Amino acid sequence: MAAKIHVFVVVYPVQGHINPMLQFSKRLASKNVRVTLITTSSYKNLNDNQPSNPTVFFDYISDGFSGEKPPGIADFVETFKAESSRSLPELIEKQSKTEYPVNAIVYDSFMPWVLDISKEFGLYGVSFFTHSCAVSTIYYHTSKGSLKIPVEKGNVVSLPSIPPLEVCDLPSFVSDLDSYPGVLKLVLDRFSNFEGADCLFFNSFDKLEIEVVNWLSSKWKIMTIGPSVPSMFLDKRLADDRDYGLSLFKSDGEACIKWLDGKDTESVVYVSFGSLANLVQDYMDEIAWGLLNSKCSFLWIVRDTEKSKLSEKFLEEAADRGLIVNWCPQLEVLAHKAVGSFMTHCGWNSTLEALCLGVPMMVMPQWTDQTTNAKYIVDVWQTGVRVKAHDKESITREDITKSVKDVMEGTKRGDLKANALKLKEMALEAMSEGGSSDKYMDDFISQIVTRTTST
Ligand SMILES: O=c1ccn([C@@H]2O[C@H](COP(=O)(O)OP(=O)(O)O[C@H]3O[C@H](CO)[C@@H](O)[C@H](O)[C@H]3O)[C@@H](O)[C@H]2O)c(=O)[nH]1
């Protein structure tokens, strides 16, 4: 029966959302469900690596900008909402005339309007949260006013099932209301109609966030279906775990792996700030010289658009110890035996990937949910150290060097690594057959089957 089920997975078009929803789609497809991942046409031509026999199908909708840079987040969302509200129903109608009509829509929580479309067609509708359960819960309280904003500096925030948070541990859009009001609106709007969804998916797993998972599930039907990383880095169950090439950036994969192959076990610091961050010049300088002064080898992802921020002098001195590339296959890098630690901006995907591969972290959150993820990495899971203490104004090269030494060779390394390995085991257990995340996926499928056969 499951073979006849067809699920649309509708993604908000940014790299950090496409990656987990694509991995989720592959898992679902491996359970004999037909899955079509729908994203914007901007991702259409990237698919050079598209396998000839894909397990996941793709379809594309316009974001209304035909490749032009949108003026700002609010305009983008408004136009994208109008475009997708027109084109998504067309895709559903088109499918209804085939042997694979759509039964369910899993939509990015950034696109709450898709729930209205799924209801209009009588489909099972699921909101997929690409943030952690904790971060999503903080945004929930903000949207409902149970977390009063603005929060005054110096206050400690207490929310049910969340550890006490200093203001700088809150998501940046909440702690600094003037920073990105358009994005704050986007993340809070998710809660305008979420209670009408048949279920809420979180890219997390029960044991990772047990308190907050319990709190959420006492109120709503939630399923933690993560960590949404390729099977080959976890349970290795999916034979057809292909790279669909949905990356906005050109990867220097071969060069990275070859370079890592020549390094000693756990001797390299991997440094990346994800797909969105633009670091200011001073920050780049301090990282650069802090890494050099640590005397460790490092692989640093600096996107081509950011490379002019690296001085000639630094590049010369780094030549025999550092490799600086535009983009890499991050999971392969984290899984490489030469990598000993990860200096990270704490994007949720990077956080989960480091946990799944048992790699200790040096946390350097920049904005959005990263500040809260950093708090969990350092104080709750204890798999990383803070590069800069909360009470320090800005980061220095000495902070960088010290944190690298602490994590790579200090007395803390043993505990950090042991905690990271424990979480790696738990992540594996959750995704393996019969594990919590695996069971939720089965549960989701049987609910669609029941809904489909009873109508
Ligand atoms: O050289 C690289 C660098 C990154 N990645 C991948 O790119 C993704 C990056 O995702 P993430 O770590 O979450 O960072 P962002 O791209 O910054 O993601 C945005 O979206 C996330 C999910 O909502 C949020 O948690 C982040 O804060 C937000 O910045 C991960 O899957 C990485 O494996 C690569 O493959 N190669």
Short description:
The chain has 455 residues and is an alpha/beta fold.
List the keywords:
seven-stranded parallel beta sheet, 16 helices, Rossmann fold, 455 residues, alpha/beta, six-stranded parallel beta sheet, 2 domains
Largest sheet: 7 strands, parallel
End-to-end Cα distance: 15 Å
How many beta-strand elements?
15
**Assembly context of the chains:** single chain
Q: Ranges with pLDDT <50 over ≥5 residues?
A: none
CATH superfamily of the largest domain, by name, is Glycogen Phosphorylase B
Structural class: alpha/beta
Instruction: Name the CATH architecture of the largest domain.
Output: 3-Layer(aba) Sandwich
Relative helix content:
40-55%
| Average pLDDT reading | 94
CATH topology of the largest domain: the name is Rossmann fold
Strand content: 15-25%
The number of helical segments is 16
Q: Could you tell me which ligands this complex binds, including any ions or cofactors?
A: uridine-5'-diphosphate-glucose
Task: Please tell me how large the radius of gyration is.
Answer: 22 Å
As laid out across the biggest beta sheet, the strand order is 3-2-1-4-5-8-9
Shape: globular
Protein name: Glycosyltransferase
Pfam families: UDPGT (PF00201)
Keywords: Isoprene biosynthesis, Transferase
GO molecular function, one term: quercetin 7-O-glucosyltransferase activity
